[in-house]
Amino acid sequence: MMRYHTEPTHTHGTPQKTGILLVNLGTPDAPTPQAVRSYLKEFLSDPRVVEIPRPIWWLILNGIILNTRPRKSAAKYATVWMKEGSPLRVHTEKQAALLQGYLGQRTQAPLVVEFAMRYGNPSIPSVLDKLKRQNCQRILVVPMYPQYAASTTATANDVVFDALKLMRNAPALRTIRNFHDRPGYINALAGNINAYWMKHGRPEKLLMSFHGLPQFTLDKGDPYHCECHKTGRLLAQELGLTPEQYAISFQSRFGKAEWLKPYTTATLKEWGASKIRRVDVVCPGFVADCLETLEEIALEGKEDFLHAGGGEYHYIPCLNESDAWMRALTELVMDNLQGWLIEPDAAELEQSRLRALDLQARQQIRSN
Asked: Per UniProt, where does Fe(2+) bind (predicted)?
């Protein structure tokens, strides 16, 4: 028998609100082996992330990975941890707060912007509950992944849908699939890079590094690889780059299986060996800086390039809270709120409250 969660108390005359939920990948609560282990267990137990038969993977995960990787990963997190916490959480929280303000300049409809993490805290179910308690009867889910992948966007949606199964009074729901080719997003990326170049000069080559996925995901129909290449092509066009001036690569390879190529590490080593004078690296698949950008690319990537004989190495930060990106995100959300931007009618709300009170009074009289 289904056990629904307890519904929040409803008060007639309360305006309905629309919730906007920004969802990013996740982060441990602290840069410690224990916190990282808990995070990795949740992350790597997701069948959308690791498509290996469960019994085999359970043995590998619990017998090897969770006994060796947490300490190493915790040390890496410690190198990028901010005073306020994990970079990904800090930036995502700021983006949510700014989006609330940007949307408030565009509409008087009652909106609530929150953020959640697919793995770790704040969890998606807890934030959905928070939105419901604020009388959000419509919720727009915004996975903060420009390029769609089953292991990112789809798994975030899985958790949202599972949470709705436990609600007796489920809200209306919309989700955003991707935004890899939206002009606002491309322009924000180009503006961010050009601003960096205005201060630091231009490189001999620009490397666009996207998070990697196993090759079989492409073979089985995941559109991620194609969407990454479209983002790269549109960004290069916006920057006025020739094919010889940039390349697209894939980072964060895990395990021994073949992943999407070319690999970022291999590309940087090759360019270093070729004595490239200066390389700049940008990560267009991330809208907020995190471990994969600040440690893997900014630090490890630099070491790979310089050790191989390369010249100057620059990492260009993610969009984070830049004005151009926040305006692009605002437009993306506004476009997907069509028909939901309903401003409350104070008179109608008061009439609803009075009707409910009148009905309650008549029922009490009959019962007496």
From this structure: 211, 292
